[in-house]
Task: structure prediction
Amino acid sequence: MNVVEKLKIAIIGYGNIGKYAVEAVKSAADMELVGIVRRSGEVPAGVDVPVTDDISKLGKVDAAILCTPTRSVEGYALQCLKLGISTVDSYDIHSTIYELQMTLDIAAKAGGAASIISAGWDPGTDSVVRAIMLASAPNGLTYTDFGPGMSMGHTVAAKAINGVQNALSMTMPMGYGVHRRDVYIETQPGADFEKVKADLLADPYFTLDETHVYKVDDVNTLIDRGHGVNMVRRGGAGKTQNQFLQWKMSIDNPALTSQIMVACARAAVKQQPGAYTMLEFPLIDMLPGCKEDLIRKLV
Amino acid sequence: MNVVEKLKIAIIGYGNIGKYAVEAVKSAADMELVGIVRRSGEVPAGVDVPVTDDISKLGKVDAAILCTPTRSVEGYALQCLKLGISTVDSYDIHSTIYELQMTLDIAAKAGGAASIISAGWDPGTDSVVRAIMLASAPNGLTYTDFGPGMSMGHTVAAKAINGVQNALSMTMPMGYGVHRRDVYIETQPGADFEKVKADLLADPYFTLDETHVYKVDDVNTLIDRGHGVNMVRRGGAGKTQNQFLQWKMSIDNPALTSQIMVACARAAVKQQPGAYTMLEFPLIDMLPGCKEDLIRKLV
Result:
């Protein structure tokens, strides 16, 4: 076998996902972490790779893993693609994924790089499983249950309520696509919990679902990164009914998200210029090693 | 939207899988069943499409679904590919899948068609799930449990034992990749069941697994096409351990196999000439409808 050069990977953003992405890249024998990009440019404790405030200062980069908040994805992706650097993001606003793809597709083709968007577990591997289920049983219903696990969006919404010191919103699967919200609230000194609770229940983020609000002394003792999914489809294949398919996971949320993004970075550099969701490239491209070995092992 | 011509599909072989493939093609709004190819050329009861002994007599065919015994796949695929007809098979001899791919890849490129091999549920969608699991948690173990369900290979082996009138070999999942064989035997008049049982237990097909042999009066009353899989992986993502992923199905075996083959026929005509396993093409290509709608719905 030839000696193959390692993929040069940069990580943009050093929050929860970024920290795990560093571990996942370092654990990949076919990758080299060339640096971390942070707005502040500050070197976090324990980091032994270059840290910069601009990816163009890192030298040659094959792919950048965008671990920024979802709203910043487009800007960073456009910058990378213009520099000819492939990108992977975990953009998770389902209603505008296609619009992001169209925007990044033009930039990717112009820059001669590839962009894999909405890579993670949902959107991401769950999307792939939904496609497999639909192909296997074209008529029927798919239900996706999430959790129990922390909802970032709902937690942020709860923290924004007047009188809230700290909050945790848990997504509780009640079965077949229905979810309950369990919200744990630490109030600010002097705040009236009943008022906080009423305001929260009236917030558009919480009016759609059954929501339980609990007063606690210390939210931080309740936080766990565990999450999960239980997706089921019962449907017909041809004229045959009652095919049952199920996908289940119990996972550390940021660790799994970043691991899938790292696998997609491997895939990104193998694609023709353009932007792709996880449904649109061959899944073997996510895996290290030679094609023959992978086919013999997995197929 | 433009009016798109329907895909012209032929089915080769009219056994268990072939019959269900007819139903799946007829249920697909974007496909037209142009004919069935059988060695005998005989028209089976209830069939309302042309039946022939040679695919070249059917006029234009975009893709052929090979529902023949696995050993006949290569011959039929080579004939189709030479005619420029894309093929889908469910070749299931795991140890020689890569060799089949190499042979058909040359023929496909020469004929200007695509061949999707080993399409079904295992090999097939299970192979895809194994790839997703490996990408999600690179370090760890994946276990695949099959059944309970009928094993075609072991049933044929049991029927070949001297003194056996009819037989059914069931694959029983004992957990984490270990399987038991439950074999139901109808003996020929005058045959000694104890001798039959001893011969069966000494057959190389059955020596590797715990095998139970039962004497029954009528094997046919025991046969059900139901089957299933339970695949689990526990592994590490980056430095984070204890990620748990699971894929489970309870299905009508030939109906699911043929449905997945039909979805792969849709994918085959979209690929560049060559031979592909299900790991090697974008899974969105299996689905009917426009890309934008699919991405909005599934991702």
